[in-house]
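seq:
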Amino acid sequence: MAKSKKKQTPGKRRPKKATAGPPLDPLRTGMPALDSITGVEVLGKGKRVFQIIHTDEVDEYEKPRAKVRRKKT
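struct:
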């Protein structure tokens, strides 16, 4: 007797959620000072996880932020 093979229907695959990578290592080369970090965003794209570090530091080549002028009333 020949065995009949059932067609396997693919189950619903759930996309894996991006998990945060290892915690920030402040001693790693190129990292900003801890007191200058204003926020950290964690973004996930597929298996990759990115951490965007926001700081209040300004490099020499960057222009300072323009001050907002208020209208006289």
